[in-house]
Amino acid sequence: MKYLAGRLAALLAVLAVIGLLPRLTRTDPALTILRARYAERPPTPETLDAIRADTGLDGGPLHILGGWLGGLLHGDLGTSWVSGQPVAPDAIAALGVSLTLMGASLAVALLLAAALAAGTLRRGAARRIVTTRAGVGAAVLAAFPEFLIAAVLAAVVAVRLGWLPALGWGTPGQTVLPALAMGIPAGALLGRLLDDALPAAFAEPWARAATAGGLPATRIARHALRRTLPGLLPQLGLIVVGLTGGAVAVETLYAIPGLGGTALAAALAQDLPVLQACVLLLLLLGVAAGLAARLASRTLLGPALRDGALPALLPPALPARRLLTAAAVVLAALFAAVTVAGLLRDPLQIDAAARLAGPSTAHPFGTDSLGRDILARLGHGAARTVLTAVAVSAATLLIGLALGAVRAGALTETANALPAILTGLVVAGVAGPGPWSAAAAVTAVAWAPIAAHTSALYAQERAAPHIAAARALGAGRAHLLRRHVLPGVLPPVVRHAVLRVPAIALALASLGFLGLGTAPPSPEWGRMLSENLPYAERAPWAVLAPAAALAVLGATAVLAPAAALAVLGATAVLAAAAVRGAGHHRGARGRKGAA
After folding, report:
1. Contact 543, 148 (CB under 8 A)
2. CA–CA gap between residue 552 and residue 139 (Å, rounded)
């Protein structure tokens, strides 16, 4: 009951904020309705008053919200302010389309996650784990934006090869390309998290005993999956909601009448009844997905979670390969070289005679549709893109750790169900458009996956037997948190936050493209992708350059911590060897003196 009460309170709070959207954005809904319905009529005070009386806007925001909630109790989602038609049929139809697309995308994501973690499963079951292998590949795949994958698939598979349709909805063939575009980044993220958690399961005593007892490798792998999945199921629930309502770019590109595109169009048109209905459906889906993930997690963990007999998942000290350190150094040096070379050029200079020119001595990475040097825009946009994304990621990490530790499940599911574009509209309406507004909007919703991951790991760590033993010995809450809980929670959550840096950079870029973030002509990687995407077939370098930069950012984000850990591990080994050598030398001198 407490679970549902918290979700209901969060749902009502969000709907109230949406009901106040005209006041927050300081716009007149009557003027928006007039422009949508009667574009030829002048906006006279009498006309606007008539529209307010006809739609109930003359009663104030609280009256509007109360009337909407009253109709909701009778199954009425309201009437569109723009079209004048009932909202429920179109909203439910859009939800059905989005759920179908989500199901296909989720199948792609699960298959890709299984493929990325298959090597670790196979080696772990055979007791041959050396190091995780899915990190770099998963980071690169997760860094590619959905709309870029969708555009490439449409141009190559649909247009060039003619294997599948490029537009429309209604047939199985029209589902394949958008499902691949949405499922690949989600599957890469799931695969990376699963691959990161499996070595800790294979290092537990039961795995060693099972191997010694001759259990089949497939059975050991199945038990390892059952041990690690409870920590990832909340992420799966969040991905379900994100794939349903966050696929705005993919739905637009493939002309799919889904819920995300419907919500965005309603938000831009200030059609609040449609927007409230879409958000309500997304929030209800979030509650259902969160409840299903919660029940599945408790079922997999069994009574060990309730009885405090769940051993902590402690990752083994895996020896990192020297190749990881070398790759991290090479990528960091390449990133720095490109940035410095671009900073020496003018990112705003327009050469009309060199529009969409290919790579040359004068323009090593070619030019964009306006004749601006792509290398210059990459270099000047690096600081703005990377530093802002890292700052927002750090903020989301801190917020996610804090709210995940207090188990703010209702707030987490609510934040995840809100598209970043909708939050950007509210923040930009209150504070005005700009880079700080975009950063605040993304921060307001991007902490949800981190909080869900923290909450799942926190619950498992507190159920470990060593917590009960430390508490019996008189350990306080601060000591338990610092020495027993955080060491098991922080490392995987930090790696998860690092993996999301490219995705946050893309979220910031999408808001800038809609005029809610960094304004043109400022160079920014995501804006470069959006501006040059229509010319991808004629000038692929204009799209590949920022896409490659985001992929390198994702790979570096994964490799740099691994390389740092390898260096620290080697330093620790050398220090321990030096200490042993000094002790041996002192012992030898003592024996010599005694003789």
Report:
1. yes
2. 9
- Return d(Cα 310, Cα 485) in angstroms, integer: 13
pLDDT value of residue 106: 92
Cα separation, 502 vs 543, in Å, equals: 16
The tokens 């309500």 sit on which residue?
280
Pair 157, 222: CB distance under 8 Å: no
pLDDT at 582: 41
H helices then E strands: how many in the chain?
28, 0
SS3 assignment, position 492 = helix
The mean pLDDT value of the chain amounts to 76
Note the pLDDT tens digit of each residue in 390-437: 888 889 989 988 888 777 767 777 777 776 666 776 676 566 666 777
Neighbours of 245 (CB within 10 A): 29
Q: How many C-beta atoms lie closer than 10 Å to residue 72's C-beta?
A: 15
User: Is the peptide bond between 465 and the residue preceding it cis, with omega within 30 degrees of 0?
Assistant: no
CA distance 228 to 522: 44
3-state class percentages of the chain: helix first, strand second, coil last, to nearest 5 = 75, 0, 25
**The tokens of 68 are what?**
């909407």
| Rounded alpha-carbon distances, angstroms, from residue 113 to 110, 119, 451 | 5, 11, 21
pLDDT tens for each residue of 567-586: 444 444 344 444 444 444 44
How far is residue 56's CA from residue 182's CA, in Å, rounded to a whole number?
40
Pair 412, 387: CB distance under 8 Å: no
Strands (DSSP E) found in 193-245? none
The 8-class DSSP code of residue 43 comes to -
Q: What is d(CA 495, CA 515) in angstroms, rounded to the nearest whole number?
A: 32
State the DSSP H helix or E strand holding residue 563, giving kind and residue range, or none if neither: helix 541-594
Structure tokens at 327: 């790759």
* Residues 240-260: tens digit of each pLDDT: 887 887 677 788 778 888 887
> CA neighbours within 13 Å on the CB side: how many for 560?
14
Residue (of 383, 478, 451, 523) closest to 234 by Cα position: 451
> What is the Cα–Cα distance from 313 to 309, expressed in whole angstroms?
12
Cα distances (angstroms) measured from residue 155 to each of 111, 177, 534 = 24, 11, 11
- Closest C-alpha among 239, 303, 328 to residue 565: 328
DSSP, collapsed to helix, strand or coil, labels residue 13 as: helix
Identify the pLDDT of residue 108.
93
Strand partners, 373: 367
Nearest-angstrom CA–CA distance, 301 and 354: 62
Closest CA to 450 of 424, 411, 483, 506: 411
Residues 6+ apart with CB under 8 A from 348: 372, 521
Please list the ranges in the chain whose pLDDT falls under 50: 132, 565-595
79, β-bridge pairs: 86
The model's pTM: 0.74
Write out the two tokens for 337.
Answer: 């070289």
**3-state DSSP call for residue 170?**
coil
